[in-house]
Amino acid sequence: MLAGAAAAAAGSALVTGCSGGGGPAASDDAISLERRMREGAVRDSGRLLERYDATTAVHPDLAERLTPLREAVAAHVRALALTTPKPGPTPSRTASPSGSPSPSAPAAGRAEVPAKPTEALSALADAERSLSEARTIALAGAPGELARLLASVAACGAVHAYLLTSNPGASS
Fold first, then answer.
1. Of 45, 62, 101, 135, which has the fewest Cβ atoms less than 10 A away?
2. CA distance 77 to 94
């Protein structure tokens, strides 16, 4: 996933660097670039949200620890979206954002949740870290306001990775 994000960031930088100076076409290119980057960021955050849901489904004892982090990721999806979703509850832990059934059985392309809680937390931390790194790379090609948002979300992901690997109350 990191390699794909790096390629996307490099492509974005090329598109940005090759656009002309300030005419209507340049403005349209910037909007198109921002839209593509936002859509990709929403998709990536949605996948991360699914990982949180799958981990909680397999390890319900981790729900208390994971819920605040999951809610932050859901907030990232809303912040990165081009349109603001109607107010209401965030997607439940029993359904993925696409409305498909419970994620306890991995779908095609989705990583399985490790059987041990500590390994499941480590896998989530790795996913957070990878996405944080990809977003940091994408900053180079992002338009101003989106770059600031991506930087903030990347920092949050780094904190999540730390919290997932720290050992509060150590009994697992």
1. 101
2. 18
Tokens of 89: 């509850």
The answer to whether 125 and 165 have CB atoms below 8 angstroms apart is yes
Q: What is the pLDDT of residue 45?
A: 96
The C-alpha atoms of residue 137 and residue 9 are separated, in whole angstroms, by 6
Inter-residue contact 48 to 128 (CB < 8 Å): yes
d(CA 98, CA 101): 9
- Structure tokens of 146? 């989106």
| pTM for this entry | 0.68
Sign of the dihedral defined by the CA atoms of residues 96, 76, 145, 19, in that order? negative
pLDDT at 108 > cutoff 90: no
Written as six digits, the tokens of 130 are 């990878």
In the predicted structure, residue 107 carries a pLDDT above the cut 50: no
Q: Which one, of 54, 68, 75, 38, lies nearest residue 127 by Cα?
A: 54
Q: With bands split at pLDDT 50, 70 and 90, how would you rate the model's confidence at 82?
A: confident
